[in-house]
Design a protein that fits this description.
The chain is an all-alpha fold. The protein has one domain. α6 runs antiparallel to α7. The structure holds the ligand C/C(=C\COP(=O)(O)OP(=O)(O)O)CCC[C@H](C)CCC[C@H](C)CCCC(C)C and the ligand O=C(O)C1=CC(=O)c2ccccc2C1=O. The site of ligand LXD6PMIU has 12 residues, from α3 and α8.
Length: 298
């Protein structure tokens, strides 16, 4: 291979390692919690929004860098050339870099709690981080038992959205439930789809992800079920008056859902064809959550 094609390959691997589009999973709960708060109170507070957004991105960087470190320890990422640990060969450095991201992220959240003289937001985010650690870190590694998806739903659904809402208005409200369920569902779908192409490596490392447990064919049917549930909850919530009707804008994300379902149904057992399916799910998550929040503000 020539040195220029080697460097193109390397930059491709770095791009895959950074996973930039995935960072929308950190942004959307803050956007949604804030949008519901603005719709309810008529005003938004921009400093907790900005601080929370920055902190959430740093926490997601911690989650992903430490995931590469912990996965390097179990050997499950042997064939994952875009693992930051495999790319740099510096596990200790990445470990400390991930801890620095976590520390800075938590300092941002602590600043919100300190300025509001109320530890609730910090408590909720600490709980998310503890659950995030339990997904991948020793001695728990709950993701290896197939518990990643429920943890993901709880963290990116009710917990993160309640924390973002609380950071705006310093009270809780049952009105966050529909957006918490909808954002939790699409974020969890991203994680679920990310497991299809990894079945062989997961089996070899003893990781019983939901896709390993169910098999790829039944898992592909579950993708249909999850999308159906998402649009069912959306429409039912609008009909019951739990969501304002402009949130039906989120129905415009339907083409991404159809594309995802069809691709999973056709290629569920062909890793090469579905290795990027999580990024289709990211598009579904991004557009549906963006439009849900916009629907609240209109
Ligand atoms: C790191 C995650 C998935 C990667 O999984 P896997 O090891 O299977 O994949 P690769 O090695 O191939 O990349 C995501 C796991 C999510 C976790 C279950 C829940 C995390 C909670 C967060 C800490 C919540 C942060 C909320 C924020 C908005 C304040
Ligand atoms: O690398 C991944 O596959 C994921 C990383 C990540 O941070 C995340 C967060 C929320 C849901 C899914 C995922 C991933 O799949």
């Amino acid at each position: 291979m020539t040195s220029s094609s080697e460097s193109i390959d390397r930059s491709r691997l770095w791009w895959a390692a950074i996973k930039l589009p995935l960072y929308s999973v950190a942004v959307m709960p803050i956007w949604l919690g804030t949008a519901v708060a603005i719709a309810k109170t008529g005003r938004g507070h921009w400093w907790p929004f900005g601080l929370f957004l920055t902190a959430a991105v740093l926490i997601l960087a911690w989650l992903n860098l430490s995931n590469d470190v912990f996965d390097a320890e179990t050997g499950i990422d042997r064939h994952k050339y875009h693992s930051v640990v495999n790319l740099t060969g510096k596990k200790q450095l990445i470990f400390w870099l991930s801890n620095l991201c976590l520390l800075l992220g938590l300092l941002g959240i602590a600043a919100i709690s300190w300025l509001q003289q109320d530890g609730t937001v910090l408590g909720l985010v600490l709980l998310c981080c503890a659950l995030g650690y339990s997904y991948q870190g020793p001695p728990f590694r709950l993701g290896y038992l197939g518990l990643g998806e429920p943890i993901c739903f709880i963290c990116f659904g009710p917990l993160a959205i309640a924390a973002a809402y609380y950071s705006q208005v310093q009270t809780f409200s049952a009105s966050i439930w529909p957006v918490a369920i909808l954002n939790g569902l699409t974020t969890t779908l991203i994680l679920f789809c990310s497991h299809f192409h990894q079945v062989a490596d997961d089996l070899a490392a003893g990781k019983r992800s939901p896709v390993v447990r169910l098999g790829t064919a039944r898992s592909a049917q579950l993708v249909y079920g999850a999308c159906g549930l998402f649009y069912g909850v959306l429409v039912a919530s609008v009909l019951w008056g739990l969501l304002p009707w402009p949130t039906l804008l989120a129905l415009s994300s339907l083409p991404w859902a159809i594309y995802l379902c069809q691709r999973m149904a056709q290629f569920h057992s062909v890793p090469e064809q579905i290795k990027n399916s999580k990024f289709i799910a990211v598009q579904l998550h991004f557009w549906s959550s963006l439009l849900l929040g916009l629907g609240y503000l209109l």
